Amino acid sequence: MNLMLLAMLLALLIPMYEAWQDDNIWQKMLAFASIATKTSILILVVSVLRDDWMIGVVGVLILSLGNASLMLLAQIIKRLNQI
Questions:
Q1: How far is CA 4 from the centre of its chain?
Q2: What is the 8-class DSSP label of residue 51?
Q3: What CA–CA distance (Å, rounded) separates 9 from 67?
Q4: Residue 11: which of 49, 42, 54 has the closest Cα?
Q5: What is the pLDDT at residue 11?
Q6: Counting Cβ atoms within 10 Å, is residue 79 exposed (0-12), middle (13-18) or buried (19+)?
Q7: pLDDT, position 70
Q8: C-alpha–C-alpha distance, residues 54 and 1, integer Å
Q9: pLDDT of residue 1
Q10: Under 8 Å CB-to-CB from 57, ≥6 apart: which residues?
């Protein structure tokens, strides 16, 4: 189980490197959305391992609401740069 959690944490480094490397705002937002999705999946795995459903509810909320707000922020930043 610990090996699986370590692999999931290492998978978080890939989009962080991509966000650091690229200057395109959409690529950065997609990388941050990927980080949010992987973090929420990691939270769900931990909640199953600990048998704690309250942590799982937080993971589901992050998974369902987190990416939508991040994409809305990216659209607002794109519109502000067009003005």
A1: 18
A2: T
A3: 19
A4: 42
A5: 82
A6: exposed
A7: 65
A8: 20
A9: 66
A10: none
- Residue 83: both structure tokens together: 């003005």
SS3 label, residue 57: helix
- What is the pTM for the complete model shown? 0.66
Q: What is the DSSP string of 7-50?
A: HHHHHTHHHHHHHHH---HHHHHHHHHHHHHHHHHHHHHHHHHH
Cα-to-chain-centroid distance, residue 61: 12
Cβ neighbourhood burial of 2 (10 Å; 0-12, 13-18, 19+): exposed
Question: pLDDT truncated to tens, each residue of the chain (83 aa)?
Answer: 678 878 878 888 887 787 788 777 777 777 777 788 888 888 888 889 888 888 888 888 788 877 676 667 677 778 888 77
